[in-house]
């Protein structure tokens, strides 16, 4: 049960459907961090050398799945960016019929999460997608933990399926982390609280020290009965969060940055001084300075998820201080996640990281040893 690599497929004059992860940050109709697009280019160029037609699939954000195009989640800026990178026309198409009828060589279908049935791996959408091409290339490592029509279902109905070069690279790099050298320092933050909380337990076993930040840290403090005001949290996760907060090597920062709202002046506070009308928007840089020894001692550092609302300058210093400490450490460093990449890039340290995974959730699940549905589907295809 092995995944067929791209190099074992014959693309000559075939139509190819590529699932990439081009879920990139967009602001003012422009892509603000191209990393995931750039990391998809080797596979795209490989395919284009041989195939007759390439149709790219990707999602962007979390739109409503109702077959209607919502402009703020349109892949238009991604199509333009891809066109610039390739130096060739890339046509954005709105529906499957248009994809069948178009004679253009490179197409990108609108945000696959507009299409009804994507998220519940619907049979009919999977079949329609499969009807578009002869070969399916799965290269969206960052979405391979989702069992969706464009990541799993389509594999069953297409003639041939294989993995792209990015997936191969990610697996090779992350396999090294599974046997990481200790001491291992892990840092976990971000906003996807419920999906990440469940991974803390196993990450705390793998790591010698695990530091929490972002909405995850807020949820832990809230679960311990601390006042967290209007901070980002998920109350439904409190039971689980309370158990995790008590694990010995889990560190929840007790110096935070709060504000009444995004436009008011930020203040540093000890966690016991947060008021009802405060929101915790960041971790204090002083907290990271106080644990510098953990960064100096670590042989491996794993980081996913920003420490705060880094998109706003006032609340970006916890994340940028962390990013700089990761970059300056002698440890082998691995970071992953769309927003984490964006934050590391803003902090200007991306080049000092040993391995940058394009994935967040999938990256954590993979190093935890979970099987990823899209990779399983590729394996099963070749039985
Ligand atoms: P990644 O994409 O790196 O896996 P996530 O998607 O889980 O990370 O989370 C990133 C998002 O979490 C960012 O948009 C960031 O603004 C938000 N975030 C982190 N901490 C906070 C906080 N304290 N309050 C509000 N938003 C936060
Ligand atoms: Mg994200």
Folded structure, characterized:
- The protein has about 375 residues and is an alpha/beta fold.
- The chain contains 15 helices and 17 strands.
- The strands form 4 sheets. The protein has a 6-stranded parallel β-sheet with strand order 5-6-4-1-7-8, with helices on both faces. The chain has a 6-stranded parallel β-sheet with strand order 11-10-9-15-16-17. A 3-stranded antiparallel β-sheet has the order 13-12-14.
- Helix 1 crosses helix 2.
- The chain is globular, with a radius of gyration of 21 Å.
- The model has no long low-confidence stretch (mean pLDDT about 95).
- It binds adenosine-5'-diphosphate (ADP) and magnesium ion.
- Magnesium ion binds near residues 337, 338, 339 and 360.
